Amino acid sequence: MSKQLTVLESEVCCAPLTAATVSAEAATDLAAAFKALGDPVRLQLLSMIASADGGEACVCDLTPAFDLTGPTISHHLKVLREAGLVESDRRGTWVWYRANRPRMAALSALLDIAPAT
Amino acid sequence: MSKQLTVLESEVCCAPLTAATVSAEAATDLAAAFKALGDPVRLQLLSMIASADGGEACVCDLTPAFDLTGPTISHHLKVLREAGLVESDRRGTWVWYRANRPRMAALSALLDIAPAT
């Protein structure tokens, strides 16, 4: 089981930033996820994984898309996994990744603020 | 006029990560915004600003909520502003901040992915 930050679903899901001030505890968890998204390569990796046919992507398909070494791509995937943004399974030689959709939905809801009144 | 990263609205707005792979150019802009959100204090500041009565908050109301110095809070607000997440106006002695709602909506839409099929 990979190390993952705890998702505080009850505090996070569906409560936009305009609804109330985020608690310090929730902010720490959420900031870790946003920090993981704060890199162009990781954002592209997550995009490739989330848009892959069948909802999952093999590391063997991800690595050739970048002008980066395998270990560098593996490091970025580890950061995404530890932030709870992707989940992974090893099958034989390769590791497969899929997006953690509830986690992404919670982050989306947080930023989904109503127009100013 | 404060320095702000260009928002690539046409590429960003309303296209979730599942729709297509994010281009390298868009990923750089988006990652900068997520990186700015990747700090608990900045997330709380943005939450306080976005949820403030009238949609804007005075730096004089934000600073006392944290056990941090004024310059530290100002630095965090500058990071949020340079990432295009908040806008600011000086009125007399104080600077007032409001959330850049279209920018936040674009980030929200990006993470708003449909359930796996």
Automatic annotation (TrEMBL), chains A, B:
It comes from the Bacteria. SMART domains: HTH_ARSR. The keyword Nucleotide-binding does not apply. InterPro entries: ArsR-like_HTH (IPR011991), ArsR_HTH (IPR018334), HTH_ArsR_DNA-bd_dom (IPR001845), HTH_MetalResp_TranReg (IPR051081), WH-like_DNA-bd_sf (IPR036388), WH_DNA-bd_sf (IPR036390). Keywords: DNA-binding, Transcription, Transcription regulation. CDD domains: HTH_ARSR. Pfam families: HTH_5. Residues 22-117 form the HTH arsR-type domain. The keyword Chaperone does not apply. This is ArsR/SmtB family transcription factor. It comes from Catellatospora aurea.
